[in-house]
Amino acid sequence: TNQQHTINDAFALIDNADIIEVGWQLCIPNREQAELLLAQTSTPPAVLEPADLTVFAAASLTESFTEIGQNFEAVHPGVHVTFNFAGSQQLAQQLGQGAPADVFASANSSQMDVAIETGRIISGTQQAFVRNRLTVIYPIDNPMSLSQVGDLATPDLHLILAAAEVPVGRYSLEFL
Question: Which of 69, 75, 136, 148 gives the lowest tally of CB atoms within 10 Å of its CB?
Fold first, then answer.
């Protein structure tokens, strides 16, 4: 069960063992760790039956997690990683409504807190594993002659921001 995998808490664990068939986390132990674990068992390791690993991940993680999933499948034959990429708020809502998942990778802690409050995430198992950085983008021809952050306060400047409900929108509003 996923309770056995709390040693490496790189990702939050789903707290609903009756709907979880695979207890993997999206991490790969090194050879020494694997040998140590095998040496501690009195019986030979069992062959893993084909299984699915369902990962709910923020849309901003699509590219990196797709690559990680492919690498994970290559190292763990018989395990198929299925992703549900969407906004963290939408994913937390889906979890709260009972959608089955093995891993939840949120873009912000507030949506992780929502998932914990619904009882779908084991409190204390969440771990920050990436950081966001706000980036200002302007046209190549730079018609407003922006040269420093303070120029964003120019009266005739039109800013396009993401919705306040998503992390980048909230960060942008806090910044301004």
Answer: 148
Domain with 170, as residue range(s), is 132-176
DSSP letter at 2? G
Cβ count near 145 (within 10 Å): 8
Helix axes 109-117, 88-96, angle to 10 degrees: 10
d(CA 41, CA 70): 29
Q: What is the distance between the alpha carbons of residues 55 and 103, in angstroms, rounded to a whole number?
A: 5
pLDDT at 28: 36
145: in domain: yes
- Quote the number of domains for the chain: 2
- Residue 79 token pair: 């395990």
H runs (alpha helix) in the chain: 31-39, 62-75, 88-96, 109-117, 167-175
Question: What is the per-residue pLDDT across 82-137, written as a single tens digit (0 to 9) for each?
Answer: 999 999 999 999 999 999 998 999 988 888 999 999 988 888 888 888 777 777 77
